[in-house]
Amino acid sequence: MPSPAEEIADLTVRLKRWGAAYFEIDTPLVPDADYDAAMMRLRALEADHPELQAPDSPTQRVGGAPLSAFETIAHRMPMLSLDNAFSESDLIEFHRRVVERLSVSEITYCCEPKLDGVAVSIVYESGLLTQAATRGDGVSGEDITANVKTIRNVPLMLSGDDIPSYLEVRGEITIPRSGFEQMNARARLLGQKVFVNPRNAAAGSLRQLDSSVTAKRPLEFTAYSVGVFDGSLPASHDATLRVLAEWGIPISEHMQTVVGIEACEVYYEQMAVQRDALPFDIDGIVYKVNSLEQQERLGFISRAPRWAVARKFPAQEVSTRLLGVDFQVGRTGAITPVARLEPVFVAGVTVSNATLHNIDEIQRLSVAIGDVVVVRRAGDVIPQIVSVVRDDTETNVGVREPIIFPSQCPACGAALAREAGEAAIRCVGGVGCQAQLKGVVRHFASRKAMNIDGLGDKLIDQLVDEGLLTSVADLFRLTKDGVGALDRMGEKSSENLLLSVAAARETTLSKFIYALGIREVGEATARSLSEHFMTLDAVLAASVEALEDVDDVGPVVAQHIRTFAVDERNRVILDELLAAGINWPDVTLDAGDGPLAGTIWVVTGKLVAMSREEAESRLRALGAKTASSVSKKTTSVVAGPGAGSKRKRAESLAIPIIDESALLVVLERHE
Ligand code: 9MJ
User: Fold this and answer.
1) Above 70 in pLDDT, residue 621?
2) How do residues 439-465 score in pLDDT, each as one tens digit?
């Protein structure tokens, strides 16, 4: 048993090291849950032994020191952090203290999701954005004005009535999960830095000295309070935020004002249910006393306001031990290493497997079997191993066993191959590999494809293992006797399966194309192909050039489609499927709606304020179609610097060409 002094010394060293890595180089060494637990323990020890509290104890700091690379800005009013409530009783205790200090019986609270990002302060002078800073240590932060100006949802100028001559808005900068996954997928492909989680990606993006790098990151701002201001604002927190929204400043759409602490708990439960479906990470709920006059009376303790508290959700990142690695073979033959973990509770679910993505990721993480690793689970995304806990010397003392990537397909023994520029290593066995065949059938039968009810993973395994399925076409040759002979398949279940298979014959061309499982042809691409070519024969006959004329189809996808179409085995299976009676109604084109309906755009060259993909998806959201190559049907071309042949072709066809700033005007006018 260490003495309190020894334990305090040990916790102090750890927390300082973890804090420096987290705040100064955006690289957490341990999950937040471990950090929070150590901080709580240190606070408790210092409370019991005040004489042992050092003036520079980690409990006395809000964050880390600003980096010297950015100018330092002193906050005119300190930016505080929030006290945490880890349980319902912590929250009830918070409420009791508020009631006692204010001597009132009922309190109105404003409830907000606690966004997991980077806290910033943004100053508007006469409505113009003049300064933005990180929280830093709460007293001073870094000048990140140039970077914040690149964030699309941050207004550079406020609009509306009664805008204060000086207004400091505080809030959180985050990256939505989908943007984060895309960023990391690209980084993995290009061998660049992969971020551990959206918050670190947001912090890393804001720390760029070159703001054109920041501009390419999918950052978003959400305001949650006002700092220093001139003039007058409403008397409550929620009304103040609504006024900010009227001036064009984004606030949370999930904010809700309630009376009493029970209603706060109800809000917590509601948000906990929604948490996985939200497009961004939240790590809890913030409750704020809504009356600003009451806030003022409550005041502050050293680090945090007495009028607010953060009720934490179960952690999205936790540490556990890597017990082993299995290698799964997907429908395209890609071999995915899957970590077997000591079961652990992550964001409300017990997790015992997590993806390690590919061989490069294993090398990047330098992970070995026996290591303590950080597992992250957020939303629908498959749990991932994001880092190895290197710090905890006592936890990583066991034997480390290297992860050995197989040299042959673990399912069929065929050779493995890696195509140039690809992260995945694939089995070359095709559908001759039972694992690939199972994946192909699973995809074919899935809800968004042929939607064959009752054909689950276990049954597919049985059908393939027993030799009843050697291709998806065999599904339509299944007989009641054949299926009925399988383990645990009664007469009724066999009949139901055959009925579902028969019903699946009626489909649509786009679902059928999607069901074929052509590499990188997802639902949206399948829909574009069906709308563009109108018939299956036309898709299969199309040249690579003709395919590239389709929205979302670039050279790589076009080549995948062509490779599929010319494969004799695929043609045999397609003939068999059509002979089995698969059919669809003629394709009709939706007129589409939105202000840009009927227009076809091509975006080319380098954009600064957003990526090309983002520009295209914003155009599509307004009803436009987007295409990757210029044709007579193209109605507008957006050309950034470096646009080459597409610009020339547009010029030769006399199609209007605009630059990025004109595009922004179009988008802002219609969005
Ligand atoms: C977050 N992180 O979403 C506050 N926060 O208020 C919200 N943080 C906060 N409020 C005062 N919604 C200090 C921090």
Assistant:
1) yes
2) 999 999 999 999 999 999 999 999 999
Name the one residue in this structure whose structure tokens are 């001559």. 165
User: In percent, how much of the chain has pLDDT > 90?
Assistant: 64
pLDDT at 398 over 80: no
In a shared domain, residues 255 and 123: yes
In a domain, 184, yes or no: yes
Q: What is the pLDDT, as a whole number, of residue 552?
A: 75
Q: Please tell me whether the overall predicted TM-score, pTM, comes out greater than 0.85 for this model.
A: no
Q: How many angstroms separate the Cα of 76 from the Cα of each of 73, 81, 254? A: 9, 16, 29
Where does residue 147 fall: left (phi above 0), alpha (psi -120 to 50 degrees), or beta otherwise?
alpha
- Separation of 130 CA from ligand 1 center, angstroms? 22
Segment 34-41 mean pLDDT:
89
Helix residue ranges per DSSP H, 394-553: 434-445, 457-465, 480-484, 491-503, 509-515, 523-533, 536-541, 544-548
Q: Can you give the residue range of the structural domain that contains 517?
A: 509-579
| CATH classification of the domain holding 373 | 2.40.50.140
The encoded tokens of residue 355 equal 């993806």
Strand order in the sheet with 308-312: 84-85, 308-312, 282-289, 108-115, 256-259
Is 592 within the bounds of a domain?
no
Q: What share of the chain is helix, strand, coil (3-state, %, to 5)?
A: 40, 20, 40
Q: According to the model, what pLDDT value does residue 60 have?
A: 67
Measured in Å, residue 136 CA sits from the centre of ligand 1 at 15
d(C-alpha 465, C-alpha 447), whole Å: 23
Atom nearest to 117 CA in ligand 1: 2
Closest residue to atom 8 of ligand 1, CA basis: 114
Task: Give, for ligand 1, the residue of 77, 114, 283 to mutate: max count of ligand atoms closer than 8 Å to Cβ.
Answer: 114
Mean pLDDT of 53-75: 71
Task: Determine the 3-state secondary structure of 613 from DSSP.
Answer: helix
Supply the pLDDT for residue 394. 52
* Domain identity same for 324 and 307: no
The domain spanning residue 150 has which CATH number?
A: 3.30.470.30
In terms of C-beta density within 10 A (0-12 exposed, 13-18 middle, 19 or more buried), how is residue 13 classed?
exposed
**Does residue 115 line the site of ligand 1, with CB under 6 A?**
yes
User: Residue 66: which pLDDT band, with cuts at 50, 70 and 90?
Assistant: very low
Please enumerate in sequence order all residues whose Cβ is within 8 A of that of 227, keeping only pairs 6 or more positions apart, or say none.
75, 76, 77, 79, 121, 168, 169, 170
CATH number of the domain that residue 568 is part of: 1.10.150.20
Q: Exposed (0-12), middle (13-18) or buried (19+): which is 311, by Cβ within 10 Å?
A: buried
For residue 531, pLDDT beyond 70: yes
- The pLDDT-based confidence of 396 (bands split at 50, 70, 90) is low
Confidence at residue 395, expressed as pLDDT on a 0 to 100 scale? 54
Q: Given the residues 114, 216, 288, 625, select the one marked as catalytic.
A: 114
For residues 490 and 377, state if they share a domain: no
Between 119 and 193, the more confident residue is 119
**In the predicted model, is pLDDT for residue 318 greater than 90?**
yes
Do residues 35 and 107 share a domain? no
- Residue 101 corresponds to which amino acid? R
173 lines ligand 1 (CB under 6 A): no
CA of 288 to the centre of ligand 1 (A): 9
Task: Provide the token pair at 273.
Answer: 């249910």
Name the residue of 224, 278, 313 to mutate for ligand 1: max ligand atoms within 8 A of Cβ: 224
Same domain as 632, residue 570? no
At residue 64, the pLDDT reads 43
Same domain, 27 and 83: no
Which residues are CB-neighbours of 12 under 8 A, at least 6 positions away? Answer: 42, 54, 57, 58
595 lies in some domain:
no
Tens-digit pLDDT profile for residues 475-514: 999 999 999 999 988 889 999 999 999 999 999 999 999 9
Total residue count of the chain as it appears in this document:
671
